[in-house]
Every structure is written in C-alpha cells, then in structure tokens.
Design brief:
Blueprint lengths: L9 H6 L4 H16 L4 H23 L6 H6 L7 H16 L3 H4 L3 H13 L39 H16 L6 H15 L6 H15 L10 H8 L1 H13 L2 H31 L3
Length: 285
C-alpha cells in the first residue's frame, strides 16, 4: 500500500487520481437515484433484505460457489459440502456486517476478526485458526474445499509481521479524519485486505464485507441497498483479478483502475436494487 501512504491525507490524494473523480460522481448519482425511488419510501426494509441476499450470493460466487439466487434463497442447510459452506459463510458475514457498524468506528481490526469468526464457523478449519491472523507458514485458502477456482493472485503471502503492521496502518487510515469520498476508502479497505489475506480462509468474503461496512458507515449507502458484491460478481472474476492486480502494483494508474472498478461494482449493485424496486412496484416480487 505504499502509494496510499504519502501526504497528510493519503486517501484524499487517491481521490484526485485521473478517472477517480468521475467514478466517485457517477456512483453518487446512481446511489441518489435509487434512494429517490418511490418504493424506497415505503418498502426500504424489503430492499435492504433482498440486497443482502444478492450481495452474499455475489460474494460466494467470487469465492468459488457460484449458485443461482433462487438456490441460495431456498436452501436452509449450508453445511453439507464445500460450496454450501462457502455460501453459508457469505450469508452469515453479510448479515453480521450490519451489526458491527459502531464497532468499526472504534476498532476495525476487531470487526475483521469477528467477520472471520462468523465466516469460518461453518467451515472445516481448526478452531485455533478462526478469528485470528494466520501465523508463519500457515496457508490462506479462500474457501476450503473450493480450491479448484485458484487464488485471486499468485503474489506471495505477506508474512505475519507485515500483516500486523499493514493492518495497523489500515486502521489508522480508516480512523483518521479524511476528505476522501466513501468509494475511495471502501476500495482501499477492500484491496488491502485482499492483498494481506490476514486469515487462513475466507479473506475475500471478509474483504468484500468490510467494503460494504465502509459504504454504509460513510453515509453513502446508510440503508445498505447498493450491494457492490453483486457488481463485482457480474463484472466477473477475471476482471476482478485484473483490477486487483492494479491495486497490488501500487502505481497511480493501478490504484485508479481498482477504485474505478469498485465504483462500477457499486453502480451495478444499484442497478440490481433498482430492478428490485421496479419489481415491487409492479407487484411482481
């Protein structure tokens, strides 16, 4: 995250990179439109619930369990096999994220540990590895049993000392006063957690939930109806990995490409919730 550390307000500096202001403005307009939909005045709770379900489905898909929405909706047992456990992890984490907003404002690392505890609770991972950063020589497997999809990046795992230092730095960035737009902060939190892979499993699920928390906490999406996870999944794992490679590069162009990619994901999440609004308005959902 070297490119993020320069200046008195490094997140605000990222917001001025070429293409980022346009992405920020496009996201803001899209979010304003869905919040202004007439259905939101009467049925926002339903939109929030549906957005959470679709967010979990999208996050699970990126971690190797690409189930149809109706399959996720109807299933009640998520313990039978690897893909089911991954979907269950995404559902639990998405539900838990909304309960941790106030804690995030005080201790993001506590929230991350809790999210991993919730995610890995249904996985075949030894108890001693759940809810704490991995130790030296411990691997990071995104979704135990779904390894066939391969890792998002072939970059070496940062060692525990580097993880601890960079998590401290990320916490400082998140908690420090900043003029950065919510999209920029959310994208950096998401990208840094993907890069660090601090836990032994489900780092992508946790990273996407943390992005969601930032978007809610910032006031951009207070009702949690703009599921970026939907957009990330719709854009596809290859595009996700390519944009993330830009983040890993630490170059201005790479960082701008990652932030813009995250902005596009939010816009696609907005489009999904707008379609839900329209369906409810027609009485079709």
């Amino acid at each position: 995250m070297a490119a993020v550390r320069r200046g008195d307000d490094p997140l605000a500096a990222l917001a001025s990179l070429p293409g980022v202001p346009d992405a920020v403005e496009s996201v803001r307009k899209a979010v304003d439109r869905v919040y202004g939909h007439r259905v939101m005045r009467r049925r926002s709770t339903e939109i929030t619930s549906e957005a959470a379900l679709r967010a979990a489905r999208g996050s699970a898909a990126l971690s190797g369990a690409d189930w149809g929405l109706e399959e996720v909706r109807r299933r009640t047992d998520f313990s039978a096999q690897a893909e089911a456990r991954t979907v269950g992890a995404a559902l639990r984490v998405t539900a838990e994220a909304g309960q941790l907003l106030s804690v995030w404002r005080q201790s993001p690392t506590r929230v991350l540990a809790r999210l991993h505890l919730v995610a890995a609770g249904g996985a075949s991972v030894g108890d001693e590895r759940i809810g704490r950063p991995r130790l030296a020589d411990e691997p990071a497997v995104e979704a135990p049993g779904c390894e066939a999809v391969g890792p998002l990046t072939e970059a070496p795992l940062p060692d525990p000392a580097e993880v601890a230092g960079r998590l401290d730095g990320l916490t400082e960035l998140v908690l420090a006063p900043s003029g950065a737009p919510a999209l920029v902060t959310a994208a950096v939190v998401h990208g840094e957690l993907l890069a660090l892979r601090p836990f032994g499993s489900y780092n992508g699920v946790v990273a996407r939930a943390a992005e969601r928390i930032v978007l809610i906490n910032s006031g951009l999406d207070p009702k949690s109806i703009c599921p970026a996870e939907v957009g990330h999944a719709e854009l596809g794992r290859a595009a996700y990995a390519a944009a993330f490679a830009g983040y890993l590069s630490g170059t201005p162009g790479g960082m701008a490409a990652w932030i813009s990619h995250c902005g596009r994901a939010v816009e696609l999440g907005v489009r999904e919730s707008t379609a839900v609004c329209e369906a409810l308005q027609r009485g079709a959902a």
